[in-house]
Amino acid sequence: MLGHDPASLTRVTRQLTRVTRQIDKRVHAPERCCRRAVPLSRIYLLQDGPEISETRLSEREAFFELMSHSYAARVLGARQAGQQDFRLTQALVTAVPGIRLARPRSFEHLDRLLSTIEKASRTS
């Protein structure tokens, strides 16, 4: 969670490295929220790497990457996921570019990673 010491956050379970943080519902931070819908300009597929780099995926690559992460495909299997899931995923990768984003898994690179993503979003 950005801006928080990871050691101070609660683990979801002992077996997972995922953490959770309770949000105080009394705190209102309108400057951190969008007031309107924001168009989706990119789909990032994260990958570990020695340095930050972006590679645009073909529609085919993006389709298979998204389907491999699909809940329906994982639970039901690719054959049972359904034609609608396939059609919606195909429409998505046709309309929005898929980007493989390689990055080191280290908090010290987080500012540079955020800067890379923000710069790309301004040019999309």
Provide the fold topology.
Blueprint: E1 10-11, E2 19-20, E3 43-48, E4 53-56, H1 59-68, H2 71-76, H3 83-95, E5 98-103, H4 110-123
Parallel strand pairs: 3-5
Antiparallel strand pairs: 1-2, 4-5
Helix pairs in contact: 1-3
Characterization of the model:
The structure is a single chain. With 124 residues, the chain is of the alpha+beta class. The chain has a domain of 66 residues. It is built from 4 helices and 5 strands. The chain is globular and about 45 Å long.
Question: Which key features would you list for this structure?
Answer:
3-stranded mixed β-sheet, 5 strands, 35% helix, single chain, alpha+beta, two-stranded antiparallel ribbon
> Beta-sheet strand percentage?
15-25%
Give the overall silhouette. Answer: globular
Number of strands: 5
Overall mean pLDDT stands at 79
Side-by-side strand order of the widest sheet? 3-5-4
Rg, alpha carbons: 18 Å
Task: Please mark out the parts with pLDDT under 50 across 5 or more consecutive residues, or reply none.
Answer: none
Helix content: 25-40%
Enumerate how many helices there are, as a single number. Answer: 4
How would you characterize the largest beta sheet?
A: 3 strands, mixed
Distance between the termini: 26 Å
Strand/helix succession = EEEEHHHEH
Structural class: alpha+beta
